[in-house]
Design a protein that fits this description.
The complex is a heterodimer of chains A (about 550) and B (about 1000). Helices cover about 45% and strands about 5% of the residues of chain A. Chain A contains 21 helices and 9 strands. Chain B has a 22-stranded antiparallel β-barrel. Chain B has a 5-stranded mixed beta sheet with strand order 10-15-16-13-14. Classes of the chains: A mainly alpha (about 550), B mainly beta (about 1000).
């Protein structure tokens, strides 16, 4: 009967339609998906535990060391540049050392030659990489500070013990932000300014003048001085009050460069606090730069360190770069604990001449590899031109190789006690009050005694001049990211009064335009943010 | 009373009977006969046999036989879709056998379009169809190779010569910079996910080209907008072969035996030339004398050591028929392909089944299709090619001095005996010692039901359920004693082990209703379609990397992560077609797409399109002009979207954990770090608006046919990774909607059949495309000093880029220095035009110079059939495409010869002049790579009606990649993206094929 057929067909249509409508209503909700990956958390989940806060704080510290979430590379933080190039420490080193008398690199990567010769422009990729890396750190720190506000901690229901710990983390995050802002202040001028009160998303940050940025950093550090853990009382790798004082001291020592106002007295104040906090010199200078430079005997001299590890903290930047790039020519890789050298960095003759005896037998800080290398740099692109440096090695103090021959274990001590000694002496000589020359003299001789192993290197009072301090900073702190800042403070960075090979692109060196005292804001950011002005001269 | 049956009535009945029978006998006869196909003699089933001028008719049966009663003086009309109709006068004949010839592009032919079908003559959009007889022949392993050079506007570039390698397909240029430019591929109604499958070079290689019935390429927005948010780059619809109702069982077997040879080898110095070069340079003081000590005494042609002529074979078996009410087609394909790079191999089996029963009085048509693939790949290390180019030819392959610890292969070692990490690797060792294998299985199935509602015959309901599943796993293994993964510290293990696996599941549910109605009183007909689609994509990647450890204590885990992700797409779509007087056509489509990729406020996009067509040849003034068989003017306008931008959760803030090797140690304890990722709450679709005007024409019953089109495509809200203001997000480059791009062009397609006769058939086809691409907006703020976004990374140095996306220029324009030449035409090293006149060569002297996309590309081909022979060829021409020869720029400089750490390198000497040091950014290396490539030449012969079973044999000989004419000095001028970096060369292939039909 046709009727039953019709009924059947009607039923099937009904079923189809109903099925369609059912799937329709249930499926519209499908569009609200959340990530399936269990390694990905929404902010609410991430900040629901104290350990969650610690993990984000660890990322803030790791930002100086690694370049992404996968070692050595593969999940980069910064885009638009080779990931190995985007390492904070690597680019900070490049920008603080290559334009000075302390280092020249022989590679032809786009951007290196102009750093060597102080002819860079606003499109230089390394300047851009460090700039973005600095602001990446600042943005992350702002986020952490925002998420760890007292109101948020109350809302999230943490108990008192947890709140104490998280507030300590917050103080460290503010410190790390201040540290990166100090780098921004030192390297650039009129760079953008954002705080935890600024949103994430589409907006245009305003620039800040150097004096205003100086004031902000100073006030933020002073505000957390009591909140951060006392000097030498925090876990190794984490910032403490000693690190805070060291940063303040740096800020004040260079205040005249940043703001035009001298703050040498304040510098002396904070140097003294550090010196009185119980840091001690390690007996062997060379041990500060080896694979086991995190042993307490060594780390007692360190005030703030960036921690690397060949197994857990792998990167193509950081100390991996410092060591590999310095090995080439006929230097034996086994001595350096690495697989093969990259043959990049060596020194100019100006630096060599800071040492009266380059053998290292008297002044142990003279660590030159001269075999197969020439003193003169005739061809910047040839590694064998210019003496090589053997300071950084991925071997332990008893000669064992580091845990991995590609990725090094060496930590980088950003602030050290002898740096503070030298800053104290310089601030005194520059007219700061609160200190005296004889104390300064004592500190200088202490560090020279450590270098020489005995009194043979001691100086007389008459030797203690400002120029001596500059040279001594070279001998003591070379290749530790200080040189450019020091030369600028002494007015020797761009001027004609002090030249070194290849300064300005000339083989004997020539003075360059004073605009090079500051790095240019990268063209890409000036275009993306119309509130920023291109740096004058670029 | 029986006797009342009067004589008169009897007589009249008898007379009437006589009259009737004589009439019948005099005028009606029964005609029988058999209708076959002129091409192969196969019976044609279902041919309509009609008495001309009447509606009386019949159709042929399974054997092609028919029987019809008709008047002797009548004419019988034989017609069949896809064939030329024929008429025969009966004239008293009782047997009329008919042989029907195939019609060319019959206007009645049904073309598959998005969610429906339409007759070719009623198409309003820019649509090209290519069916099985037009496919390229030869060693075709992937579907897209069938199409190369066949359609205007479609550019297909195979990735490399590796077995089963994918192809890059561009329809009318790319409309995106950062998002995908790939067209949407739809197989039997299922839109396929374009992302690759780990372990398979090309996901489309899991479809057997032999199973494909036809391709429909939708080019303009009025045709593609029905696919909404995925349609901006065009759509390719693949329809697979199905069984035919009522057909007899037939079996077909096809085999191809292939020889792959190397068409052109990279040009480097021979051992003697090399020795000479080093000695001369040392003598002239250009190279240090220590280089002489490093020279060897052998003569090794490394390129010959890594390449070899390779044999491959392929077998196809397919059976089609009809079992009661169930038409079916079953096919099986086995392919074993070896690549010309030694140890490269692909092995695959594909099984396909299609069942197309028609139930409930033909009211319910079901289409069940299943396709399963099992593939094994052995990937040779492509890096062996680059190393073969630069390895010192004076060294032997094996050496028991340097190679003692490294498998016996000659190795560059340092004084310590450890491998020199910067030196080239032994290419033979790379191929022999490294193993990279994968195993993949894939299943694609769908059930399609088309139901004509009984009480409303004009209404059909269509349901499509699809399921696409793949599972692949692979591993890469490098042993501890491989020189490039050697651990120099005692007690440690080197080597590498990477294990990966991936699972993907895609599900589809499509439902739509179609209503057709003819209103003859107003000479109109219309059809309306409305539907809904739901699609879910899910995948999970897992990867585990360690070294080649001997014991757990020496194991170092570098990476151990599973990564699941998913995406939902939900849409509503509809189409309205209206035809007036059978010559004015109007189409309107609308699609509303929602994706889970974007935030709720940006998630839905509306994509409309309009098209008008005018069949000029149906107008009264042209209707009777026999010479013009088709003349149609089309206008189309549409908006499509692009949502394939990579990540699936782009708008959500999220924290990602670090891997074990990117932790940070605090207080001696390694802590996993958590990083907030950059995100853009406002991210949304890219929108492309396309305007298209086209003219389709055909003359002399489509003996000459073709089309001319002009199109303009503008994309706005281009997704681009651009630098964002520092300090505003957790990244410095964000994927955000920021730019505008324009593509405009002209396409011409022509097919002609100069000779069509019983014994000789000759067809010529030509398609020409000119496409211009220009970026019109790139950043939020217009800044004349902003040059552009770098792209086109090159080998050599680190982080060097040779191209720029800039406003006012085509995308990926080369951005280089202008080389200065001397009086003999040789470049002067390091001397470039000082464009800004400041006396120094700085980055400011770089300029925009040419781009990789061709200005014009052609495809042309011809087919000739003479009696039982057939001959065909296909060729392609690209004009105005430029390529940067990165092989030369990174390995053709004299300073590369000797490295201070103690090794020699061979140089690429394709150019007349080699620089001393790297000049990566010189436009000397950018050459016009215009080419003519004859892709395919084929010759075949048919043996018909062999044996009792009436089998049909065909043998063929084919050459693929027959020859190339170009001025480009590198290996192969056809490089998508314009940067030549030692691509795996495409082989020259010789094929012998045999096909048997039962």
């Amino acid at each position: 009967m046709k009727n039953t057929n019709d009924m059947k067909q009607f039923k099937s249509i009904l079923i189809i339609t109903l099925a369609g409508m059912f799937s329709l209503t249930s499926c519209l909700k499908d569009l609200d998906t959340v990530p399936l990956d269990k390694d990905v958390n929404s902010p609410d989940v991430q900040y629901s535990t104290q350990q969650g806060y610690l993990q984000v704080l660890a990322k803030l510290y790791a930002g100086f060391a690694v370049t992404g979430q996968q070692g050595p590379a593969g999940d980069a933080d910064i885009a638009g540049i080779d990931e190995g190039f985007s390492s904070y420490l690597r680019q900070y080193w490049n920008l603080q050392e290559l334009p000075t008398d302390e280092a020249k690199n022989c590679w032809d990567d786009d951007g290196i030659p102009s750093l060597n010769t102080m002819t860079w422009s606003s499109t230089n990729p390394f300047i851009r990489a460090l700039y973005y890396r600095i602001y990446y750190q600042i943005t992350l720190a702002n986020e952490f500070i925002r998420e760890s506000s007292d109101e948020k901690l109350d809302d999230r229901g943490f108990n008192n013990e947890e709140k104490v710990k998280i507030r300590e983390y917050r103080a460290e995050a503010r410190y790390l932000r201040a540290l990166s802002y100090w780098h921004a202040l030192d390297l650039f001028s009129n760079s953008p300014f954002i705080t935890e009160d600024d949103p994430i998303g589409a907006f245009l940050p305003m620039p800040i003048t150097r004096p205003n940025l100086f004031n902000y950093i100073e006030s933020d550090l002073l505000a957390i001085e009591d909140q951060i853990i006392a000097a030498r009382n925090n876990q190794y790798g984490r910032a403490d009050r000693g690190a805070l004082w060291a940063l303040l001291a740096k800020l004040y020592l260079n205040a005249e460069v940043y703001t035009g106002t001298q703050k040498y007295t304040e510098c002396i104040t904070y140097c003294k606090r550090i010196i009185d906090a119980g840091y001690t010199l390690t007996p062997e200078y060379s041990h500060l730069f080896l694979a086991d430079n995190d042993r307490s005997a060594v780390s007692n001299e360190a005030i703030f360190s960036i921690v690397f590890d060949g197994i857990h903290t792998q990167t193509y930047g950081g100390t991996t770069f410092l060591i590999h790039a310095a090995v080439g020519g006929n230097m034996s890789v086994v001595d350096y604990g690495i697989d093969f050298g990259w043959g990049g960095n060596r020194v100019t003759k100006n630096f060599v001449n800071l040492f009266s005896d380059i053998s290292g037998n008297t002044d142990s800080r003279a660590m030159f590899h001269t075999d197969g290398q020439t003193l003169e740099i005739v061809d910047v692109s040839d590694f064998t031109n210019g003496y090589a440096i053997s300071k950084y090695k991925n071997v332990t103090s008893d000669g064992q190789p580091g845990s991995n021959q590609t990725f090094t274990d060496n930590d980088f001590h950003m602030f050290r006690l002898t740096d503070i000694y030298l800053m104290y002496a310089e601030a005194v000589l520059r007219g700061g009050s609160g200190g005296d020359q004889s104390t300064a003299f004592g500190y200088i001789n202490a560090l020279r005694q450590r270098a020489y192993g005995d009194n043979s290197g001691n100086i007389s009072m008459a030797d203690l001049t400002l120029n001596f301090i500059l040279d001594e900073r070279g001998r003591e702190l070379y290749w530790e990211c200080h040189r450019r800042t020091d030369l600028i403070r002494y007015n020797k960075f761009t001027s004609n009064s002090y030249v070194w090979p290849w300064k300005g692109g000339i083989s004997n060196g020539i003075g360059v335009h004073e605009k090079f005292n500051v790095f240019p804001l990268p063209a890409s950011d000036v275009v993306a943010n119309p509130n920023l002005e291109p740096t004058p001269g670029y | 009373m029986k006797q009342k049956f009067s004589t008169l009535k009897r007589v009249s009945y008898f007379l009437l009977l006589m009259l009737f029978t004589t009439t019948v006998w005099a005028q009606e006869i029964t005609v029988t006969g058999r209708v076959t196909s002129a091409a192969d003699g196969e019976p044609l089933i279902g041919v309509t046999v009609v008495i001309k001028g009447t509606t009386i008719g019949t159709s042929t049966d399974f054997n092609g036989n028919y029987s019809i009663k008709t008047k002797s003086a009548s004419i019988l009309l034989f017609s069949y879709v896809g064939y030329e109709s024929q008429e025969f006068s009966v004239d008293g004949k009782s047997v009329i056998n008919v042989s029907l010839a195939e019609a060319f592009e019959s206007l009645e032919e049904v073309v598959v379009i998005g969610y429906g079908q339409v007759k070719r003559e009623d198409l309003t959009g820019s649509v090209s169809t290519i069916s099985a007889k037009d496919f390229n022949k030869g060693n075709i392993t992937t579907p897209m190779e069938l199409l190369m050079g066949r359609t205007s506007g479609v550019q297909i570039t195979t990735n490399s010569g590796a077995p089963g390698a994918g192809a890059i397909i561009r329809i009318r240029g790319g409309s995106s910079l950062s998002a995908s430019n790939d067209p949407l591929v739809v197989i039997d109604g299922i839109p396929i996910d374009n992302e690759g499958i780990n372990g398979i070079r090309n996901p489309l290689s899991t479809i057997n080209p032999n199973d494909i019935e036809s391709f429909t390429v939708l080019k303009d927005a009025s045709a593609t907008a029905i696919y909404g948010s995925r349609a901006s780059n065009g759509v390719i619809i693949i329809t697979t072969k199905k069984g035919r109702k009522g057909s007899e069982f037939s079996l077909s077997y096809n085999t191809n035996l292939t020889l792959n040879t190397i068409a052109k080898k990279p040009s480097v110095f021979t051992a003697d030339e090399f020795r000479n070069l080093v000695e001369t340079r040392v003598a002239n003081g250009l190279t240090p004398a220590s280089a002489l000590n490093a020279l060897g005494t052998e003569s090794t042609n490394w390129i010959d050591k890594v390449f070899e002529n390779a044999m491959s074979h392929e077998h196809n078996l397919s059976a089609t028929g009809s079992y009661k009410i169930l038409p079916y087609r079953v096919s099986l394909n086995y392919t074993n392909q070896n690549g010309i790079l030694k140890t490269d191999n692909m092995n695959r089996i594909i099984g396909a089944l299609s069942l197309t029963p028609s139930l409930l009085d033909d009211n319910l048509k079901l289409n069940v299709t299943m396709n399963g693939t099992k593939m094994t790949n052995h990937f040779a290390d492509g890096g062996a090619i680059g190393n073969a180019v630069s390895f010192d030819p004076t060294k032997p392959v094996f050496d028991n001095v340097t190679g003692t610890n490294y498998g016996g292969y000659y190795t560059w070692v340092e004084a310590s005996g450890f491998p020199n990490g910067l030196a080239p690797r032994n290419p033979v060792a790379l191929l022999d010692m490294r193993s990279d294998e994968s195993d993949a299985q894939k299943f694609l199935g769908n059930i399609q039901a088309n139901y004509r509602l009984p009480f409303i015959p004009e209404l059909t309901a269509n349901l499509n359920l699809g399921y696409d599943y793949s599972k692949s796993e692979g591993s890469i293994f490098v042993p501890r004693n491989a020189s490039w993964a050697y651990e120099t510290v005692a007690g440690r293990d080197g080597g590498e082990r990477i294990d990966y696996d991936q699972q993907k599941k895609n599900q589809l549910l499509d439902f739509y209703l179609n209503y057709t109605k003819e209103l003859s009183n107003i000479f109109s007909k219309f059809d309306v379609m409305a539907g809904h689609s739901w699609q879910h994509f899910w995948k999970r990647d897992y990867s585990y990397n360690t070294n080649d450890f001997q014991s757990e204590s020496t194991k170092i885990v570098n990476y151990d992560k599973a990564f699941p992700t998913e995406l939902y797409l939900i849409s509503f779509f509809g189409r309205f077609n209206y035809t007036l007087k059978d010559r004015y056509l109007f189409t309107f489509t609308l699609r509303n797409d929602g994706t889970s990729r974007f935030a709720p406020e940006n998630r839905w996009g509306l994509f409309p399109s309009y098209a008008l067509a005018w069949k000029i040849n149906e107008e009264s003034f042209l209707k009777d002009v026999k010479a013009i068989s088709e003349l149609k003017l089309r206008l189309g306008y549409g908006v499509t979207g692009q949502q394939d931008v990579g990540g699936h959760y782009l708008y959500l803030p999220n924290y990602v954990y670090s891997q074990p090797d990117a932790q940070y140690i605090l207080g001696g304890v390694p802590i996993t770090t958590a990083r907030p990722g950059g995100y853009d709450r406002n991210i949304k679709w890219e929108e492309t608006t396309t305007k298209n005007i086209g003219l389709d024409f055909g003359f002399a019953n489509n003996r000459i046919s073709g089309s001319v089109e002009y199109y303009l495509r503008e994309t706005k809200d281009l997704l681009n990774r651009i630098p964002i203001p520092a300090g505003t997000n957790f990244t410095n480059y964000l994927f955000t909607n920021i730019g505008n791009l324009e593509n405009k062009g002209i396409e011409v397609q022509l097919v002609g059949r100069p000779i069509v006769s019983k014994d000789l058939y000759w067809e010529v086809s030509l398609n020409v495309t000119h496409n211009e691409n220009k970026i019109t907006k790139l950043t939020a703020v217009d800044d004349p000093t902003f040059l552009g976004v770098e792209t086109g990374g090159i080998s050599g140095g680190v982080g060097n880029h040779i191209q720029l996306h800039s406003i006012g220029y085509p995308s990926s324009t080369f951005f280089v220095y202008e080389q200065i030449y001397d009086s003999e035409g040789l470049p002067i090293e390091g001397l470039y035009v000082d464009r800004d006149g400041d006396g120094a060569i700085t980055e400011a002297d770089r300029y925009w110079f040419k781009n990789p996309a061709p200005d014009v590309f052609f495809g042309f081909g011809s087919r000739l059939e003479y009696k039982k022979f057939d001959f065909s060829f296909v060729a392609r021409v690209n004009l105005g495409n430029y390529v940067y020869n990165n092989v030369s720029s990174n390995s053709g400089v004299y300073s590369d010869l000797w490295h201070t750490t103690g090794f020699l390198r061979n140089l690429n000497n394709a150019y007349d002049f080699n620089f001393n040091s790297y000049q990566y950014f010189s436009n000397y290396y950018i050459e016009n790579a215009s080419f003519l490539k004859v892709d395919n030449i084929s010759l075949g012969y048919n043996f018909d009606n062999i044996g009792i079973k009436k089998m049909n044999f065909r043998v063929s000989a084919i050459v693929q990649n027959a020859f190339v004419i170009t001025k480009y000095r590198g290996l192969d001028p056809e490089i998508f993206g314009g940067i030549d970096n030692n691509i795996y060369p495409r082989p020259r292939t010789f094929i012998f094929g045999l096909t048997v039909n039962f």
